[in-house]
From TrEMBL:
Keyword Transferase recorded: no
Listed name of the protein: TonB-dependent receptor
Lineage: Bacteria, Pseudomonadati, Pseudomonadota, Alphaproteobacteria, Caulobacterales
Organism whose genome encodes this protein: Caulobacter sp. 73W
Location (main, coarse): membrane
GO biological process: iron ion transport
Family per similarity comment: Belongs to the TonB-dependent receptor family.
Length: 827
């Protein structure tokens, strides 16, 4: 705490003005440059590295959006979650850092399913280092230079797991000119954020940059059970980089970072109760009545809860990298060597109530990741080429714990015809009425993953003439995964002794052990997967005019296969069905047509893209009665399709006004998915041949559901973002500058929050509006007031079913209205 207070005070010192004479020259030069260009109104070119070389974004025949450091600072988009409000086709879903999905155009990873043995479909890169686990990329952005969101498969240059796209983040490099930045923000909910960066030369050929960021905010939901505010923010980030210019042609950058997130988080709270096919006395209303329990609130926007298990979301991660760049032979050799670690220490409440049903549900995880990439980029007048190789190794170890409490028996087990009220259990001998049957039932899970990937790739841009360029690319990839899953279950036998829950042995027929086995079954297996794959793409681009570029792309790519490390179905003897241990790769066919244009003397930019993506063997949560399934697990759906149109418009008619608008229409469906999990209203019933109507208490439920033609989860058909900023010259407090008013907004339409669409799990559409008003001085000083979600929109980030088909729906309310003041100074 003392370290954070010292950092906040030091940053405030920088933000309000530090007497560092060596930094005085840069602002004066910047001010002179600003005055010299005061009458220009064209949109400045943005340089990106989307194709692993520096190019103007309008010359790159790829659907890519760029978020600059200025936009990140002005809009408060200080992490990937906030970035979604600026990027309509970027989706971010997080129950906690580990259970997080980042999707582009709605694809990337199954929504709401955590499994160590699978990988994302969106590649996250920070300073050219690949982050395999999204949980290790939920950090606050520290000293960002720009963010590129590449939409559509990027498998040739960015690797196997970019079937949906890639997020390419670049931080500010060390500078040989002294510079410093300090920023402090204060707001409601006790929001405090401080950022600081300093850079300069150590010698004539060595420069250093050190950057720090700290965010702290009280939670937005009050937990009456523990007298704590939850869903808070408590983030610390430190990054350092050392640049050595060994010669005119050779330089090395050594980088390191450490990040810690340690909030009291994360809980999903009561939203509503829907009907299921569980017997009526086993649905939520009857069960809560039996316990005499009433939730503290049935309005989620009261923002109170009573979850009784301890909560924590400690997420510690960091690493180091060495990047070398050598200009040789008319091209550039780039080597990126990196090591990353991830240490996840959660505490969760997985029954979503104030009852002691599941008293612990924790899956602490430790990961080490090593990567090596080597590329050579060569340019000539007629063609340029990138050729390279990539190696990846990951070791991940999860030690899971799940424990049941005294309310678990009544909540989980079938009491037959016992009356719903507590009196009905007073004299009953059914196991559901005996708290000791499941009280203390404990699952200790030991999960190990070893993951190796090797690849070789090349991409060529061949300019047939001044207008037409053909760009083929190919990547060969080898993946190997080996795993270990050992779930040891311990419970209490009917004689009161603690016993292993097993399918064989002297206690295997004990009625208490049999009941416990139906709730959590032990299993041990060692799955493995290995496969070669080939990705390739072909891009044609045509420069219609100097300011208009047309392009088309076909890509054949894949997301690597995986292994099930959350448990697999068991046969009648309790033996794991090993055929379900591995998952086939996703195979992607992608078509895209795009047009990039600038007009109005380059005061306006308009880009439009149409896309069509089909995925075979889509990795999803599946039920399959042919395997004698007792639970859901990860497998392959036959085929899904996502198609749509995106458009981006930016205008800058003068230096005093700029505006932007981005929109996307996305049509999406499971083309064929016949063994999907059923929605809650078709779950929890008996196994009779005649399937009952949805929501029939005590009815018959199908073993699985055919959801072909239904929506994919997490995708809105319509999504948009828009905004504007106007400014006017002003002298304030002896400083020359401008006063400005900014507005940013985003909208998304209804989307499904469940693997199989449910009447109770659609998230209604919503719009968010943000404003800022401030003064920006020519010398780098900036102060502004801001308000986010200005109209206090009540919306959900995500909804979820809860265990046991009781009908309870829980969710995560989005942030309420927040407001504050930011002061930034650059030297």
């Amino acid at each position: 705490m003392r370290l954070k207070s010292t950092f906040l005070a030091g940053t405030a010192f920088l933000a309000f003005g530090a007497p560092v004479a060596a930094f005085a020259q840069a602002p004066e030069e910047a001010a002179n440059a600003a005055r010299a260009t005061a009458n220009t109104a064209s949109i400045e070119g943005v340089i990106v590295t989307a194709r692993r070389r520096a190019e103007d974004v309008q010359a790159v025949p790829v659907a890519v959006s760029v978020v600059t450091a200025e936009t990140v600072n002005n809009t408060g988009a200080f992490n990937i979650s906030r970035l979604t409000q600026l990027q309509p086709t970027l989706q971010f879903y997080s129950q906690n850092p580990r259970n997080t999905s980042v999707n582009i155009r709605g694809i990337g990873a199954p929504l709401g399913l955590t499994n160590d043995g699978i990988e994302q479909g969106v590649g996250v890169y920070i300073d050219q280092v690949y982050y395999n686990r999204v949980a290790a990329a939920t950090l606050d952005f520290v000293d960002i230079e720009q963010i590129e969101v590449l939409r559509g498969p990027q498998g040739t240059l960015y690797g196997k797991n970019t079937t949906a796209g890639a997020i390419n983040i670049t931080t500010r490099p060390p500078s040989f000119d002294f510079e410093a930045t300090g920023e402090v923000s204060l707001g409601n909910y006790s929001f405090k954020q401080a950022k600081a960066s300093v850079s300069g030369p150590l010698t004539d050929d060595i420069a250093l940059r050190i950057s720090l960021s700290n965010t702290d905010r009280r939670g937005t939901i009050y937990n009456v059970a523990t007298n704590q505010w939850i869903q808070g923010q408590d983030n610390l980030g430190i990054r350092g980089a050392l640049l050595w210019k060994a010669s005119e042609d050779l330089n090395f950058t050594l980088s390191g970072d450490y990040n810690l997130q340690d909030p009291i988080c994360c809980a999903q709270i009561y939203v509503r109760v829907g009907a299921t096919q569980r017997p009526l006395n086993r649905q939520y209303a009857a069960l809560t009545a039996a316990f005499g329990y009433t939730p503290v609130s049935t309005n989620p926007f009261d923002r109170v809860t009573d979850v009784d298990a301890p909560l924590n979301a400690r997420n510690e991660h960091g690493g180091a990298s060495l990047r070398g760049e050598w200009d040789v032979g008319g091209g550039t050799v780039t080597s990126v060597t990196a090591w990353r670690f991830w240490d996840w220490g959660p505490k969760n409440d997985r029954d979503f109530t104030g009852l002691p049903i599941t008293t612990a549900s924790n899956n602490p995880t430790k990961q080490d990741q090593y990567t090596q990439e080597l590329r050579y980029a060569y340019d000539t007048e007629r063609y340029d080429v990138v050729v390279g190789a990539f190696g990846f190794y990951q070791k991940l170890h999860t030690t899971g714990l799940e424990a049941q409490g005294p309310a678990a028996s009544r909540w989980t087990l079938n009491p037959g015809n016992v009356a719903a009220g507590s009196a009905g259990c007073a004299t009953a001998t059914t196991l559901a009425c005996i708290p000791a049957v499941l009280n203390g039932l404990t699952a200790n899970n030991d999960i190990l993953l070893k993951n190796t990937s090797l690849a070789a790739f090349t991409k060529v841009n061949w300019r047939l003439n001044d207008r037409l360029t053909i760009s083929p690319g190919v990547r060969v990839n080898y993946d190997k995964k080996t795993g270990h899953y050992d779930s040891v279950i311990t419970g209490t036998a009917s004689d009161g002794t603690r016993q292993r829950v097993l399918f064989t042995g002297p206690y295997s027929t004990d009625p208490w052990i049999v009941a416990q086995r139906g709730v959590r079954a032990p299993q041990y297996y060692e799955p493995d997967f290995s496969k070669w794959n080939l990705s390739y793409d072909l891009n044609l681009s045509y420069q219609v005019t100097p300011d208009v570029l047309a392009y088309g792309t076909y890509a054949k790519t894949f997301k690597t296969g995986g292994i099930n490390l959350n448990g697999v179905p068991l046969d009648a003897n309790g033996v794991p069905i090993l055929s379900a241990g591995s998952i086939k790769p996703e195979k992607v066919d992608h078509f895209e047509l795009g047009l990039k244009s600038q007009f109005w003397e380059r005061r306006a930019t308009f880009n439009v893209t149409g896309f069509w993506t089909e995925i075979q063997d889509y990795q999803a949560n599946v039920n399959n009665a042919q395997l004698g399934l007792l639970r859901g697990y990860l497998a392959n759906a036959d085929k899904v399709r996502v198609r749509g149109v995106e458009a981006d418009l930016n205008i800058r008619p003068s230096q005093r006004f700029s505006a932007y608008a981005s929109g996307a229409y996305t049509d999406h469906e499971y083309v064929k998915f016949v063994d999907a999990p059923c929605p809650p209203e078709l779950s929890g019933g008996g196994a009779g041949a005649a399937i009952s109507a949805p929501g029939t208490p005590g009815g018959n439920s199908p073993a699985n559901c055919d959801i072909s033609g239904q929506w994919l989860p997490g995708i809105s058909k319509l999504a948009a973002s828009w905004g504007a900023e106007a400014n006017r010259p002003l002298n304030l407090l002896g400083k020359a500058g401008e006063v400005y008013l900014g507005y940013d907004a985003s909208y998304r339409s209804k989307f499904s929050s469940n693997a199989s669409r449910s009447v109770d799990l659609d998230v209604e559409g919503y719009a968010l509006h943000n404003f800022r008003l401030g003064f920006r001085a020519d010398d780098g000083f900036n102060v502004y007031a801001w308000v986010r979600n200005a109209f206090d929109e009540e919306y959900f980030e995500q909804l979820a079913t809860t265990p046991g088909s009781t009908g309870l729906v829980a969710g995560q309310p989005g942030d309420p209205r927040t407001w504050g003041l930011t002061i930034r100074n650059q030297f």
